[in-house]
Amino acid sequence: MTNTTTTTTLPPTMPLEKHTTMAPESILPKIPDVEENSELSKERSELPAEGGVQGWLCVLGAFLAIFCTFGFLNAIGVFQTYYATTTLSAYTPSDIAWIFAVQLALMWAPGPIFGRLIDTYGPAPVLYPCSLLCVFSLAMTSLADEYYQIFLAQGLGFGIGAGGCFSAAMVCTGQWFVRRRALATGVAVTGSSLGGVIFPIFFHRVMQSVGFDGAVRYTALLIALPLAASCFLIRARLPRKDWDWSVMWFDVTLFKESQFALFTVGAHFGMWVIFAPLIFLPGMAEQQGFSTELALYLLSIINATSIVGRTVLPYLADGWGVFNVISMSAGMSGVCMLALWLPFSYHPSHAGLIVFALAYGFFSGAFVSLLMPCVAKAGGIETLGRRFGTFQIVISMSNLTGPPILGAILHRQSDRDFSGLQIFSGVSSIVGCGFLVAATCSLARKQGSWKV
């Protein structure tokens, strides 16, 4: 792979979860020692004024695509609560959680494949069918009344479609900008949090009028229109490349590098449980006597404050170092679970639960946003593509196994005592913080500076 390839297709420093869905050669966050090289200067000279009109239209399309995909997934607690009390009441919380675990894992695992297809053929062969698959999957979900039907439609179908749309949005947005890539991607990524704010409220209000099946169909219509617009707005800037069979997507030897190994383990423990409140908090609040409306609004509160967290803490990371800030974010997320969420199991309080939602959304949102800059910094540029591919496979396994484990813990406590789930989540996040601190110390010794 030539230097030209690695510096012209890569997205920005400030991602979310979402930057990981790109092909290895499509990923290169801003790294100081290569930022000002001659190839990057050439790229700047070839671009219109930081993307120009077409570039910002691509950002708008990416915003719409992410709103409909990751934004919808941020509202999974609505479905977990409904299925547990109605359609799938005969199944355990762990069984139901597998549906959403597969959705989340498919946002990460096929990312290298989608990214490679976009590099080779452009975004259309990925974006168009995946957009259609998202809408079709929700339409089929509204007709499903058996576990396997819901799993296939909402778990596999929507998961694959959402992963493809997300990949196209992030890859193409990164191609239109150089100096302002972080800003452009940050604007696009806010669609995720905005979707998490809107979808729980929209779905609950519509369900009160037309029932669950009707609400799912209206939701399919709601995402169909923005996805159709995104198909027209998202365009690639860079020329297409031949398929390179020699590029590795997973390399176990990378774990011999202490910084990458420690960071990946820490990120695994954090991502293992990061969706616990989004999945189980509404059901827990309802069991404690809270209204269904307030229980679902908690999801909107978490996602609203995550917008602030994804903006403020990554901005501070420019001065403090991304490893330092992500370690703090993981630790504070764990503290929020143990100090603010766990007491709710014994002393229910409206105010306490809202405070938890506000604090947890802020810190957990920053954690997700800082993952990919840390991956970029945890090794040399020559292994960058392999690190991204390896990391996203690990994180997909974290998302795949985490929710079912949490559901199994809840089931062992008679499906009503959430304390075990809360303790497991908080401890896992703090353990992850410990590994991240170790990675920070290792990298600081290597670089001779604590600003890492």
Automatic annotation (TrEMBL):
<dbReference type="GO" id="GO:0016020">
    <property type="term" value="C:membrane"/>
</dbReference>
<dbReference type="GO" id="GO:0022857">
    <property type="term" value="F:transmembrane transporter activity"/>
</dbReference>
<dbReference type="InterPro" id="IPR050327">
    <property type="entry name" value="Proton-linked_MCT"/>
</dbReference>
<feature type="transmembrane region" description="Helical">
    <location>
        <begin position="354"/>
        <end position="376"/>
    </location>
</feature>
<feature type="transmembrane region" description="Helical">
    <location>
        <begin position="215"/>
        <end position="238"/>
    </location>
</feature>
<feature type="transmembrane region" description="Helical">
    <location>
        <begin position="294"/>
        <end position="313"/>
    </location>
</feature>
<keyword id="KW-1133">Transmembrane helix</keyword>
<dbReference type="InterPro" id="IPR036259">
    <property type="entry name" value="MFS_trans_sf"/>
</dbReference>
<feature type="transmembrane region" description="Helical">
    <location>
        <begin position="96"/>
        <end position="114"/>
    </location>
</feature>
<keyword id="KW-0812">Transmembrane</keyword>
<feature type="transmembrane region" description="Helical">
    <location>
        <begin position="259"/>
        <end position="282"/>
    </location>
</feature>
<feature type="transmembrane region" description="Helical">
    <location>
        <begin position="183"/>
        <end position="203"/>
    </location>
</feature>
<feature type="transmembrane region" description="Helical">
    <location>
        <begin position="423"/>
        <end position="444"/>
    </location>
</feature>
<feature type="transmembrane region" description="Helical">
    <location>
        <begin position="150"/>
        <end position="171"/>
    </location>
</feature>
<keyword id="KW-0472">Membrane</keyword>
<comment type="similarity">
    <text>Belongs to the major facilitator superfamily. Monocarboxylate porter (TC 2.A.1.13) family.</text>
</comment>
<dbReference type="Pfam" id="PF07690">
    <property type="entry name" value="MFS_1"/>
</dbReference>
<feature type="transmembrane region" description="Helical">
    <location>
        <begin position="388"/>
        <end position="411"/>
    </location>
</feature>
<feature type="transmembrane region" description="Helical">
    <location>
        <begin position="126"/>
        <end position="144"/>
    </location>
</feature>
<dbReference type="InterPro" id="IPR011701">
    <property type="entry name" value="MFS"/>
</dbReference>
<protein>
    <submittedName>
        <fullName>Major facilitator superfamily domain-containing protein</fullName>
    </submittedName>
</protein>
<feature type="transmembrane region" description="Helical">
    <location>
        <begin position="320"/>
        <end position="342"/>
    </location>
</feature>
<feature type="transmembrane region" description="Helical">
    <location>
        <begin position="53"/>
        <end position="76"/>
    </location>
</feature>
